[in-house]
Design brief:
The structure holds 3 protein chains of 3 kinds. Chain A is α/β, with parallel strands linked by helices. Chain A is built from 19 helices and 11 strands. Chain A starts with 7 loop residues before the first helix and ends in a 15-residue tail after the last helix. In chain B, a hairpin with a 4-residue loop joins strand 14 and strand 15. The chains are: A alpha/beta, B alpha+beta, C mainly alpha. Chains A and C meet through helix 11, helix 12, helix 14, helix 15 and helix 16 of A and helix 1, helix 2 and strand 2 of C.
Chain lengths: 527, 492, 97
């Protein structure tokens, strides 16, 4: 197998043994990017020179016998909403097209300390708002398995880069499924750790109460390797959990004895699927693959129990309200005053001057008093030209749900539903160790199909948003391929702080199956 | 102001900067006066991805203040985002506390030493922590096209104290604010430096006017730009007059047409309030919980501990000084207003001489004047409380009269001498009684007219005799001279 | 929750956004559909006696010590400003706004 599709775990072993150099691994990734990224468009910034220099330096240090970090020499790609001091951080938005933060996110610092090679920044839905990586101002990312299809999102660039052999590891973020769903669409393994496990400091926020940074790789072992570096307490974040971290690469070697997995009645009885004409049921191929995966667990000695998450039918609505309210708040700072895009000030002022002169000429003092001042106009002009349609939709929705008239009926109600969703999981985890199900109702779909149907897009996240509402640990692992040749993901969820249990359960599956070793037939094939 | 015509109803909002080294949610310095944008980090500049972490000391100081204001301390408080777009607010929201503030429902008692109003408790609706915003600067004179934004002040820890509308006159408002400032100073929670913005206030005011149809409330006005206690009193006095006039002209009442709340700014030079521009959407700040911050839990035991560590507060000290040392409310107020160190000085001096009133008079007249003249604090004062007490003891026992004691005091002040040294160096020897009897005989003999008047019951003439005696011997104690003179006249 | 084109006009001022009439009508239709979905879900659910879940970790009382750390270099902070001078961010003149 070429270096570009080796697992990170294997690459690390060979790097440590001196069989290969970091420059070779990094160069191979860059070759893969050169060959295919014109089609896939997984990256928005490739740190070619910096990555090669970093790789060379790591090789030199290794040769001279210095102690090396746990990821020494391994390329890692970063979703473009993780702040990096020496590379732009655009979040897929025109607002930040020239934004270069003066600081590194905590996970970036940790990766530097682990001697990872930071190879570039990956494409994403604008401000992580979307499930298809089509809302990026830099244009869409395409699925390496079929470039006519979306890679999922919002961490679509990160998942596609790993799937296409452009990097063995990537870091994404997951607010409602944004790591797991693209991992599922791209046939890779993606973990959303327990909320508070991985630092959010330096992650450009979408919905801070649900955002979580997590690893994407080609196997559970690779994801465990990266999680070892990412996870841990960060005093810069108040919600960071101060608890000891185990060595996940070590613990996944031990299968779980007496495992009980739960399958969720509501996943299959249609009650989450909606009944309006635009609604979309669980694809039969997906259901079959998930049921087959459950059988795999049974053959491994797991017991299976049907559980009910009766309030999961409200999860998308609760998520939609809370996430848009938080997004309104988090994007209020994007004003073109202190950073970010500012509209043509002279044009805004000229417009205002013309209007006020006209009103003065008419002696219309009342209209003059109510004339929107230049500053407010500048804010609106900057934000309107910098934000894309989906961001604007969510900001407007967030503005409404937080208004005094709607706050109690929508926002607080959604917080109450959030508790019900969480309580459902609490009850379920009293009976089962892991909840297993589909990641998404369908496999990857053609570009453009859902782009103008936001509700359909939101409801595509119905199996994943629950873990964000409840702060769970959850992972997507490949469990099949559709007749059309597109990957299918299996969703595993564990209670908060049970990341280790989750990874062990996922590793059991990958030990028994080879779906995660499948590669896209020709990742960068021209359209 | 309770006139026959109307009642004035005033509530205050006070912002106090807590005396911490670092800001409320990041560790940038709070020092005043740094060049623009040099005390900023990615957090204060509102850069994306930054996260707040609460300053422990800021919460401690805020809690201490709330307990001292007799507030209820709920077991849990939380943090909210208050949204508005403004260039000095880089996050687009201010972190504050809306529905679960760290304290609510307390009171502060105010009284007027001269009895202008009855002592009363002013209700505190709430006291909560919030972050300050930055500063926008515009040089209107220079006619520049741009305003400049300095974010150094972003994130300074502010305690917002909101009173109930319990104040009934501009004077009460001023007294409340000075009592509050005194309390904050005693607690050591803020430097209360108004020039540097550590203590700021806004006032809400309207009138309740009795009419034939019952009491009518005028529209509430929020008065801003109040930069001193004096400004508060004058602005509110102006505003009550203006509102009464406006009511007579327009009849606008609260809750009716034209009765919405408005904001006016105090123009210090012109001594008028002027309307400020209304923000279209300012009514709705779209509060939501800040997901990046956690609730703060405070146990009853912790509140009890904070309460036990408050120390003696101004109102209690004033009461104790009146009770223990027999001084008047005016006097207690003057001493307590000088701060804890002067209080301690007074207590030591009063105990040493055994006469609180005398100690109080001396401190107010002589010690404070000397402090002012020398621009020093009581800690640096050359005459210790014990020394002053010793000196006043001499007066108390009749060994020294007030005017000679003052000479001794000034000698001590200038030379740093002890009481004994100063008395000696001024040549004040205690005078033999026989010597004074002789002196008095001479004076009486020289003034037969005065003696006759005294015999006729005109005691006033005695003063002149004492004066003559002291001119002949400055060390003669006037009381003794008086006593002996009366004795001699009675015998003759 | 309503999203008529007129509602969009009002709320977009608060949100500091603006739209052309076409954009506005399109977004109004999309948001109206989303709002209908949300309304249906909320109406269907019973949350009486359920306390809002605000903080998911269950943590409380996390503080930092009051120790000053160096601020950022001013140049680094101002580097991203669209308009600035040597010391400050610049914005169009604010007159009592």
């Amino acid at each position: 197998m070429s270096l570009s599709f080796c697992s990170a775990t294997e690459l690390l072993t060979r790097l440590q043994a001196g069989e290969i150099s970091s420059v070779e691994v990094t160069s191979e990734c860059l070759r893969q990017i050169d060959a295919h990224d014109a089609t896939i468009h997984a990256f928005v910034h490739v740190a070619r020179d910096a990555a090669l220099a970093q790789a060379a330096e790591i090789d030199r240090r290794r040769k001279s016998g210095e102690a090396m970090g746990p990821l020494a020499g391994l390329p890692v790609a970063l979703k473009d909403n993780l702040c990096t001091r020496d590379a732009p951080t655009t979040c897929g938005s025109r607002m930040f097209e020239r934004f270069c933060p003066p600081y590194d996110a905590t996970v970036v610092t940790r990766l530097h300390e682990a001697d990872a090679v930071l190879i570039g920044k990956t494409n994403m839905d604008e401000f992580a708002m979307g499930s298809s990586t089509e809302t990026s101002c830099w244009g869409p990312t395409r699925n390496p398995w079929d470039p006519r299809c979306v890679p999922g999102g919002s961490s679509g660039g990160a998942a596609a880069a790993v799937a296409a052999g452009m990097t063995p590891l990537a870091v994404g973020s997951d607010t409602g499924g944004s790591i797991r769903q693209p991992a599922s669409f791209c046939g890779v393994t993606g973990l959303k750790p327990t909320y508070g496990r991985v630092s959010r400091y330096g992650l450009v926020a979408l919905a801070s109460s649900m955002d979580q940074v997590g690893p994407i790789g080609r196997s559970v072992a690779d994801v465990a390797l990266l999680l070892n570096v990412l996870a841990g307490h960060d005093p810069s974040e108040s919600t960071s959990i101060d608890a000891p971290i185990t060595d996940f690469t070590d613990s996944i070697r031990r299968p779980l004895d007496g495992l009980t997995i739960g399958i969720v009645r509501e996943h299959y009885d249609g009650c989450l699927d909606g009944d309006d004409p635009s609604s979309e049921g669980l694809d039969a191929e997906i259901e079959a693959a998930v049921r087959e995966a459950v059988r795999v667990y049974q053959t491994l000695g797991a017991r299976v129990r049907e559980i009910s998450l009766p309030h999961s039918r409200y999860a998308v609505a609760a998520f939609c309200i809370l996430a848009s309210g938080e997004a309104f708040a988090n994007l209020a700072r994007c004003d073109g005053i202190h950073y970010g895009r500012r509209a043509d000030e002279a044009a805004v002022l000229a417009d205002w001057n013309a209007q006020s002169r006209a009103l003065e000429a008419r002696h219309d003092q009342q209209a003059l008093d109510h004339l929107e001042p230049p500053l407010s106009r500048l804010y609106r002009a900057s934000r309107s030209e910098a934000f894309g349609a989906e961001v604007k939709r969510r900001i407007l929705l967030g503005t409404q749900v937080l208004s005094e008239d709607c706050y109690e009926a929508y926002y607080v109600k959604a917080q109450r539903l959030r508790r019900l969703v969480r309580d459902d999981f609490d009850a379920a985890f009293g009976e089962v160790d892991v909840v297993v199900g589909p990641v998404a109702p369908t496999a990857a779909y053609p570009l453009g199909r859902r782009l103008h149907d936001p509700l359909l897009m939101y409801r595509g996240d119905r199996y994943t948003v629950g873990s964000n509402l409840a702060g769970l640990a959850a992972i997507s692992v490949p469990c099949g391929v559709t007749a059309a040749g597109l990957p299918i993901g299996l969703h595993l969820q564990c209670p908060p702080m049970q990341d280790e249990r989750l990874l062990r359960a996922a590793q059991m599956f990958q030990q028994a199956t080879d779906w995660h070793t499948r590669r896209p037939p020709s990742p960068g094939k021209k359209l | 102001m309770s006139t026959d015509r109307y009642d004035t109803v005033i509530g205050l909002e006070v912002h106090v900067q807590m005396l911490t080294r670092s800001k409320l949610f990041c560790r940038c310095s709070t020092a005043f006066g740094a060049p623009p944008n040099t005390q900023t980090c990615p957090g204060c500049a509102g850069l994306p991805g930054t996260l707040p972490v609460m300053n422990r000391e800021a919460f401690r100081l805020a809690l201490k203040t709330a307990v001292a204001l007799n507030c209820e301390i709920p077991p849990s408080s939380k943090w909210d985002r208050k949204h508005y777009f403004y260039p000095d607010l880089p996050n687009g929201y201010q972190i504050s506390q809306l529905d679960q503030p760290l304290s609510r429902e307390g009171w502060l008692e105010i009284r007027d030493a001269k009895g202008a109003f009855e002592p009363k408790r002013i209700g505190i609706a709430r006291a909560h922590l919030e972050e300050d915003a930055g500063k926008s600067m515009h040089d209107e004179a220079a006619g520049k096209a741009d305003s400049r934004i300095d974010l150094n002040r972003c994130g300074m820890p502010l305690l917002e104290i909101v009173t109930h509308p319990d104040l009934r006159s501009p004077q009460e408002a001023r007294v409340f604010l000075s009592e509050l400032k005194l309390l904050l100073t005693y607690l050591g929670v803020s430097d209360c430096n108004m020039q540097e913005g550590s203590l700021r206030f806004d006032a809400n005011v309207n009138l309740h006017i009795p009419t034939a149809d019952g009491v009518v409330a005028t529209p509430i006005v929020e008065v801003k730009n109040l930069n001193s206690f004096r400004a508060v009193e004058r602005a509110l006095a102006y505003e009550t007059r203006r509102q009464y006039q406006a009511w007579q002209e327009t009849g606008h009442r609260r809750g009716g047409p034209g009765g919405h709340k408005t904001t006016r700014g105090w123009d210090e030079q012109a001594e008028v309030t002027r309307p400020q521009r209304q923000k279209e959407e300012s009514a709705d700040y779209r509060y939501c919980p800040d997901p990046n911050l956690l609730p703060v839990l405070v146990s009853e035991a912790e509140v009890a501990r904070v309460r036990s560590e408050l120390g003696e507060l101004p109102a209690a000290i004033r009461a104790r000084l009146q009770e223990t040392f027999g001084i008047g409310m005016d006097d207690a107020e003057v001493i307590v207003n000088q701060g804890r160190a002067v209080v301690d000085y007074f207590i030591a001096a009063a105990e040493a001489c055994g006469d609180g009133k005398r100690a109080s008079n001396w401190i107010q007249q002589d010690v404070l004047r000397a402090l002012n003249e020398r621009l020093i604090g009581i800690e640096a004062f050359p005459v210790s409380a014990a020394a002053l007490g010793e000196l006043l003891g001499l007066v108390q026992r009749g060994e020294l009269d007030n005017s000679r004691a003052r000479d001794v005091f000034h000698r001590m002040l200038e030379s740093g001498q002890s009481v004994v040294e100063a008395v000696q160096s001024l040549g004040i020897a205690s005078v033999d009684r026989g010597e004074i009897v002789e002196l008095c005989r001479r004076v009486l003999a020289d003034n037969p007219q005065a003696v006759a008047e005294i015999k006729a019951g005109k005691q006033k003439a005695l003063g002149a005799l004492i004066g003559q005696a002291r001119r002949q011997n400055p060390n003669a104690n006037p009381a003794t001279v008086r006593e002996i003179c009366l004795e001699l006249i009675g015998q003759s | 929750m309503d999203f008529s084109p007129q509602d969009i006009d009002k709320v977009s001022l608060v949100a500091r956004l603006c739209f052309t009439p076409d954009e506005r009508d399109q977004i109004a239709a999309q948001l109206e559909r989303i709002a209908n979905y949300l309304d249906a879900c909320l109406a269907d659910s019973d949350t009486s006696d359920v306390a809002p879940l605000v903080s998911i970790t269950g943590l409380a009382g996390v503080f930092a010590d009051d120790v000053v750390r160096p601020s950022c270099d001013r140049e680094a902070i101002l580097a991203n400003a669209p308009k600035r001078d040597d010391e400050c961010y610049l914005v169009p003149a604010i007159f009592g706004e």
